[in-house]
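Quick note —
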Amino acid sequence: MSAPGKPRSHGRVQPVVSLQPRDLMADSRRVAGAWRAKVITLFPQAFPGTLGLSLTGRALDQGLWALDPIDLRSFGEGKHRNVDDTPAGGGAGMVLRADVLARALSVAAQGTPADRGQWPIIYLSPRGRPFTQARAQALAQGAGMTLICGRFEGLDQRVIDHFGVEEVSLGDFILSGGEIAAQALIDATVRLIPRVLGNQASTEEESFSEGLLEHPHYTRPASWQGRDIPEVLLSGDHGKVADWRRDMAERLTKERRPDLWRAYCEAHNRDPDGDQEL
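Predicted structure written out below.
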C-alpha cells in the first residue's frame, strides 16, 4: 500500500519529462530495440495516464516499450515561454507557432530513424485520416513515433508541410486537446507489440482484425435473467462454434457498419447485398 498522500507509481520505469529525451538504452530495464513513443504536449503531466495501468502499464514497467513526454512550453518564446499567436488573416483563437514546434520536433528527432515508415510524426487532428486497426498494426511494426498534441486552433500549416507530419483523426468529434487522443492511439498500438498482451491470439480475434466486428461473448452462469448462452457454444463442437462466431461477426458488421461490410465483401469477392439471411 502507498503511504497516505503519496502519489502511486505507474510502474518502476517512469516517463521523464525533459527538454532532452533519454537515450534509448539509458535504462537497463528497457528491452533492446523497444518500441518508443515521444509525445510533444503542453501537459506532460497527463502522461502516462491510463497508459500506466493494466497491460500497457506492466509492459512499460518491463521495458517492452518506452514513453517520453516532451514539454512544448520549454521551447516557448520570451520570458513567458509563449507557444502560440493570433491566426494570420484574423479570426478567433490562437495557433501554435511554427518556430516553437520546430525546436521541439528537432529535439524529439534525436536518436530516431529518418525513415518515416519506421518513425512517423503524427499530429492528432480532426481533419486527419481516420485511425484504423490496420494503421495501429503498421505502427506497432515500426521503431516508434512522435506525437504532437494540438491545442487552441491547431498548428501552423508550415510545420505540417516542412516535417511531413501525418494527420490522424480518432473520429468526427472535437476534443480540447490531443492528449486523450494520443493515449488512445498509443494504447491501440502498444497492445499489438509482441509480449505485451501475452496471448497474441487475442488480437487475431478482435474487432477489425479481419475487417469485421467481433462476435458476441458469453460466460458463466449459463442462464441469467431468463437469458441462456447460445446452445452451440456449449456443444463442444469447435467447428460449429467457429462457424457461429463468423456468422455473428458478419451479421453485426452488416447491421452496424455497412462501410466495413462493403469493404469486407469487396476484399472477399462477395456481393454485400447477396446474402439476405445476414
